[in-house]
Amino acid sequence: xxxxxxxxxxxxxxxxxxxxLVEFSDLQCPFCRSFHPTVQQxxxxxxxxxxxxxxxxxxxxxxxxxxxxxxxAECVWKQKGDEGFWAFADKVFEEQDRIGSTLYREVAExxxxxIAKYDTCVSQRTYxxxxxxxxxxxxxxxVTGTPGSYVNGIPVKGAVPYAxxxxxxxxxxQ
Length: 174
What we know:
Layout: E1 10-13, E2 19-25, H1 30-46, E3 50-56, H2 66-94, H3 101-110, H4 115-123, H5 128-141, E4 148-151, E5 154-157, H6 162-173
Parallel strand pairs: 2-3
Antiparallel strand pairs: 1-3, 2-4, 4-5
Helix pairs in contact: 2-3
């Protein structure tokens, strides 16, 4: 499976890395939350040889806050770029038991955002289409649950342990 990575995607790590991990994720998903530090560990271990690309895959039927969280994350990105997006995602996963608009706004404020612009972005659902495009791309790729990841196009399904992710990365590096 090949993915086109654009300026609208959120990349953590070396943008020109040899290995690309594309993760379709849901900010309300407990499995995504447990997988998040696993991918962070891979970035630490592999350094410039890997990039992590985050795409939204809100499971609306079981996670009613997934789509609002994704849209809020995009509103943060609009002002603070990828660094802000990732800081938002990290904090929302960390505080997932408090998920909701109050948490999103607190995180936005802590990142020094122009809150009036953030509030307008969220209330107008400015990034509704972007979130849906990510979701549709995930469906086309065969994602059925979250996290749904691909290491250089090879599927890695679920919140796998680090050893499993490491094996997929090592195989991609061969």
